[in-house]
Write a structure and sequence with these properties.
The chain has two domains: 216 residues, no CATH class; 109 residues, no CATH class. 58% of the residues lie in helices and 1% in strands. The protein is built from 16 helices and two strands. Helix 15 packs across helix 16.
């Protein structure tokens, strides 16, 4: 087990208010970067998707195009995380465009994350049983973790049925509405989480997104029934959708230590339970796009836009003392963190370090 001080003094790190003043420019989103990145990812993603769908199944061209579609649409999908952290009006029209180009075609409207993700960042909720995005994975068996990754492959058709069939029916049958909202409308990893019913303006936004997603579902069904859209495109949609979800699930394993078993953590404990990835390899960049490599920094400063994270991370490492808690959030790569979580190789030592960090933070 590592003998590095795992619970350094909080005073070793400048206050968040001080850092916000010093790096004020880093907190300003650049609309041009957001729009160009999203649109480029969408064009490449759906272009590669179409190329794969018309290629002979299993051919080299089909495999390559499917891979490219999965990677590009994963990147486009991850912008839902940015939407969850942006105040309304910060990027005019961006959420609507994202839903039309990415969320609705993939059956992932932004309501599935915008709103619920804020709970994951609340100090009194993070790492507890009320956190929709945290479970004590570090204490799970290897088989259970593998199942956690692969079971999401069945979600694309399930989500299509949720928005196309259960959605409209739930407005007619109140008990079904409670189930649809509480259990079937949130991107989460904590199956015990229950989403509260939307109210006011939020309920209206839900109704619009649900109606649009339902309409798209039935438009596709109609097109397939008429023969205008080959059914093989639906198979390709499932393959790419499952690839996106499985890849993101693996990336999720490298976002936190997942050693906390429901205890409330202070800000330092939450920081030490979060992970920054040092690797700049192509694999890590593709699997953790749109700033996801700097997850600890994101939890430290949630309002920093993704395009500022890399520069801000380098500046913090250049100025923070060796005892600063932030320095203890770095891990080499996704594969090393996942290996530690599964108990393979020297990754196990990394997981031990995370376990002790979380234990001391909870204590």
């Amino acid at each position: 087990m590592s003998d590095v001080p795992l619970r350094p003094p909080v005073a070793a790190t400048p206050s968040l208010a001080e850092l916000r003043r010093r790096y004020a420019a880093a907190f300003q989103p650049n609309p041009w970067i957001y729009w160009i990145d999203l649109l480029a990812s969408v064009v490449v993603g759906w272009g590669a998707f179409a190329a794969a769908a018309i290629s002979p199944f299993g051919s080299a061209w089909h495999v390559a195009a499917t891979f490219l579609a999965t990677v590009a649409l994963l990147r486009a999908s991850i912008f839902i995380h940015e939407l969850a952290h942006k105040k309304r009006g910060t990027l005019p029209g961006f959420e609507v465009a994202w839903n039309l180009l990415v969320g609705i075609p993939l059956m992932l409207p932004s309501l599935m994350y915008v709103g619920s993700h804020a709970e994951h960042h609340r100090r009194s909720v993070f790492g507890t049983n009320a956190d929709p995005e945290y479970v004590p994975l570090a204490h799970w068996s290897r088989a259970r973790i593998v199942g956690f990754v692969w079971t999401v492959a069945v979600l694309p058709p399930a989500m299509a049925l949720r928005w196309g069939v259960l959605g409209p029916l739930s407005y007619v049958f109140p008990p079904l509405r409670q189930l649809a909202v509480g259990r079937l409308s949130t991107l989460l990893i904590n199956s015990s989480y229950r989403r509260p019913m939307p109210t006011g303006r939020q309920a209206r936004r839900w109704a619009v997104q649900e109606a649009a997603t339902c309409a798209f579902f039935w438009l596709v069904v109609w097109a397939v029934w008429r023969g205008s859209l080959p059914w093989t495109w639906l198979v390709q949609w499932w393959i790419v959708g499952a690839g996106i979800l499985v890849t993101n699930q693996v990336r999720t394993l490298a976002a936190h230590g997942y050693a906390n078993e429901g205890e409330e953590l202070d800000s330092t404990g939450q920081l030490l339970d979060s992970i920054n990835l040092r690797s700049t390899s192509l694999l890590t960049r593709l699997a953790a796009p749109v700033g996801m490599r700097y997850h600890a920094l994101h939890h430290f400063m949630p309002s920093v836009p993704y395009h500022s994270l890399a520069t801000l991370h380098r500046r913090l490492l250049a100025e923070l003392p060796s005892a600063a808690p932030y320095r203890h959030t770095e891990r080499k790569s996704i594969l090393r963190v996942v290996a530690g979580l599964l108990g393979f190789g020297d990754g196990g030592a990394l997981q031990d370090e995370l376990d002790v960090s979380a234990d001391r933070a909870a204590g």
